[in-house]
Amino acid sequence: MKYHFNITSGFNNISVIEELKKAGATELYTGFFDESVNKKYPIAFNILNRRGEDANFTNWQEFKRAIILAEKLQLPVYVTFNGLYIQKQYKLILDTINKVSSLNGVKGIIVNDIALLLLLKENNYKKDIVISTGGTVFNHHSIAFYKSLGAKRIILDRQLSIKDIIEIINYDKTMQYEIFAFGGSCFFIDGFCSFFHCSENLDYNQKIVNTYNVNMCETGCHLIEQNISKFSDYYMKKYNLNADNFLSFMRHSCNLCNFYELKKIKNLSLKIVNRKKSSISFVEVVSSAINALETSKSKKEYIKYCKRILEEKKLFKCNQSQCFYK
């Protein structure tokens, strides 16, 4: 391809790795916590990372086999540690980071906790450090700050515009950058979110909080959806928003059209947002859009192609209301 972006996909199951590679993924990300962590902190999805408890690997041998297979297929893996921690948790976090980082196929970790970054620098952590979107990067000053703490890559906040993204990247081309390409989205800023940011529901009737699998948006975001339904006239009048398109945006958002403006940037990765499910079709549609950059004679022609492949893959019909980086 003349225009090259890394395509970074989440996964939580060894069975999908080869499919993701075939679909066009060039990098992977996932999470890991073992049984000892789960016993110590029952709501582990809110401790080690924000992926959701059932979106992580929990068996070390299975995780290790997945990393070895990914390495064999030349798919570097990043492991998420993008929670916010208290002092007594840092030893556990660092021990887990060192454990997963001992595997050759793990290229680095995804973090946003400032104290953890300082500890990693103090301990001379050798692998790549990626700043999560929870790091709330909106300008080049933030880039310089995280770079001083050892970051090699920044995941840019979805609230930025394409103009903002280009300006930030051009300011420091020595860094690697990552933006959202396809998948679930949110109206809010990740780093300022106080919701659970997970895919489980919680049962507070139990003495110890237990989790069980439910559909997405059953925690904090579900409360917002209920509020929009209750005050539908207000939200429609002020924000042109109803409960249906709120949930549609939360589950399916797209950045395909913007690739045209970004096509000359070389140090950029495109992130497929997924936790519980590894969406092969999401990777395929992003890969197809990148390939179309070579043959499209104009932006208009390229956008027309992107809309068509969204429908062909039966993902959704583009109405230009589900865009990342507006």
Any overview of this molecule?
The protein has 326 residues and is α/β, with parallel strands linked by helices. Strands 1-2-3-4-5-6-7-11 form an eight-stranded parallel β-barrel, surrounded by four helices. The chain has a two-stranded antiparallel sheet with strand order 8-9. The relative contact order is 0.15. About 6% of the residues have low confidence.
List the helices and strands and how they pair.
Elements: E1 6-10, H1 17-23, E2 27-30, H2 35-40, H3 60-72, E3 77-81, H4 90-101, E4 106-111, H5 114-122, E5 128-131, H6 140-148, E6 153-155, H7 162-171, E7 176-183, E8 200-203, E9 210-213, H8 220-230, H9 232-239, H10 243-251, E10 253-254, H11 259-262, E11 268-273, H12 280-295, H13 299-312
Parallel strand pairs: 1-2, 1-11, 2-3, 3-4, 4-5, 5-6, 6-7, 7-11
Antiparallel strand pairs: 7-10, 8-9
Helix pairs in contact: 8-10, 12-13
Write a short abstract of this structure.
The protein has helices at 17-23, 35-40, 60-72, 90-101, 114-122, 140-148, 162-171, 220-230, 232-239, 243-251, 259-262, 280-295, 299-312; strands spanning 6-10, 27-30, 77-81, 106-111, 128-131, 153-155, 176-183, 200-203, 210-213, 253-254, 268-273. The chain is α/β, with parallel strands linked by helices.
